[in-house]
Design goal:
By secondary structure, the protein is mainly alpha-helical. It has a single domain, classed as Ferritin, core subunit, four-helix bundle (Ferritin). The protein is 75% helix and 0% strand. The protein has six helices and no strands. Bound molecules: fe (iii) ion (2 copies) and magnesium ion.
Length: 165
């Protein structure tokens, strides 16, 4: 922990660490949801959908890294066990039980929309308190907005392909 780095955040550091851990759980669950979705996907444009899901999986892991680094800087303890993920998660996990590409895209779009709300809330909470966490949340938010758009565009292309046949 950075002693002064934590103290400038003041008494809200623990609440910020809690928000960061909630987001950390979300990112790991999003990682697995994407990673597994890429393996099981079936249907039109399967290869392209799988490639996009795999790319997003990697980016969610990078978000997890950014969150852990901030938790440690604040002197917090990151969630140490996968058992903790379901306790802490705000966005949950949608298992790819129906592997049809359009269903996978819908599930992951819902996940991205939850993430967008969560990082927006994290920015609102940290705005005047903790500029470093604010910046982290902003950097991640930029990616989540891109993710949502990528998935929606793929879903539209699949729909167009079906409609125009
Ligand atoms: Fe993410
Ligand atoms: Fe994402
Ligand atoms: Mg993408």
């Amino acid at each position: 922990m950075g002693t002064l780095g934590r103290s400038i955040v003041g008494e809200d550091a623990d609440k910020i660490i809690e928000l960061l851990n909630e987001a950390l759980a979300d990112e790991w669950l999003a990682y697995y949801q994407y990673w597994m979705g890429a393996k099981v996907a079936v249907g039109p444009m399967r290869g392209q959908v799988a490639a996009e899901l795999e790319e997003h999986a990697v980016e969610e892991l990078d978000h997890a890294l950014m969150l852990v680094e901030r938790i440690l800087q604040l002197g917090g303890r990151p969630l140490l066990s996968p058992h903790d993920w379901f306790e802490a998660t705000g966005c949950g996990y949608a298992a790819p039980e129906d592997p049809y590409v359009a269903v996978l895209l819908e599930q992951n779009i819902a996940g991205e929309q939850c993430a967008i709300r969560a990082y927006r809330d994290m920015m609102d909470f940290t705005k005047d308190l903790d500029p470093v966490t604010y910046d982290t949340a902003l950097q991640i938010l930029i990616d989540e907005i891109e993710h949502e758009e990528d998935l929606e565009a793929l879903g539209q292309d699949i729909q167009l392909m079906i409609d125009r046949r």
